[in-house]
Amino acid sequence: MRTIFHLDLDAFFVSVERILDPKLNGKPVIVGGDPKYGRGVVAACSYEARKFGLHSAMPIRTAYKLCPHGIYMHGHGDEYTRFSKAVKSILEQYVPLIEQASIDEFYLDMTGTQRMYGSMFAFASRIQKEILNKLQLPCSIGIGSNKTVAKIGSDCMKPTGITYILPGMEKEFLAPMQVETIPGVGKVMKQSLNARGIYRIGDITKLPSDYLSAAFGKYGVDLWRKAHGEGTEYLTIQRTRKSISRENTFGNDITSEEELKNNLFYLTGKVCQSLRNKGWEASTVDIKLRYTDFQTLTRSKTIKPSDDDKIIFETAWNLMKKARNRRVGVRLIGVSITNFSPFNEQEYLFEDYEVKRKKMLRAVTRVRDKFGYESLLIGCAKLEKDIIRQKNYFKV
Ligand SMILES: [Mg+2]
Hints:
Order of helices and strands: EHEEHHEHEEHHEHEHHHHHEHEEHEHH
CATH topology of the largest domain: Dna Ligase, domain 1
Number of strands: 12
Radius of gyration: 27 Å
Distance between the termini: 41 Å
Strand order of the largest sheet: 5-6-1-7-8
CATH superfamily of the largest domain: DNA polymerase, Y-family, little finger domain
Bound molecules: magnesium ion
């Protein structure tokens, strides 16, 4: 069972315009075409304007008739992009898998993060507040077991709403809603459904799928599934390019392999600590090596998603050994991990050893958070002790 968030910024273009010009607060604001020439449509309108029956995609001419005293503007496209990126970078701090569906809509795969963040509802409220406090942008969040349900959820308590559709309740949640609530059901589809006496989503579920298939083909079957609360569970992943990395420039260039290994081990440990703190796993390990003469090499390897110091260190060390083919002093080394996915305990349910090890690593993470990184040494503990004693390790 997956946990998908759909986060939708409320009246996004209008919210940004209000940040740029606070005088627009509380007024009916319409971003879109020019009412003077009657060309174009409403791209976004404030909730004050919606009271007059305005909605996005409405011809601007119609909007002007309904709300002639509104404030009409073309908007600032560059600013929307800038704010959208700012929202995304807040999300990236917490969420390893994000699909940006449009400039103001994001799907987040939160599967397996309950243990890190506790209640999903509380976590949604926390992101919502952070986006509001840092960027002054209100948003609504839908939480569901698939994208369709989450999207419908985010829309049903706007603005600044959070709707959590409990797993197993999808069908009941959707039943009383109008058919056009289902994303993809447009005017034409709505009319042909209505003509068959189908008004609510619950009306669809009372019919056999064969009926919808005969009437609308493949699209009908898809609609029938959505009405039952089914939908796409996996995001079209644009893996965030963010990485967790550490590097160290040495006070004196290093030539000893042992010393290099110790330092890499220390850096890898730090990186894995941050990774586990986020509740993520990584599937790409990168290393960086810079010689005395500033020649710099990088190497990269993809692994099975992991948050284990041992696996990540071994991968990094093998890359380092292969990269280092000159007998010259080393000035800097670094390790970086990327391609994150949520840590999912269930995947390890039947692998006893892995479960135990993961629990142990999480315990280590907690102790270190409380008492400092050096309070607990694991794996090649002797190596770590050595470099901590040498104190030639950290200058970032
Ligand atoms: Mg929106």
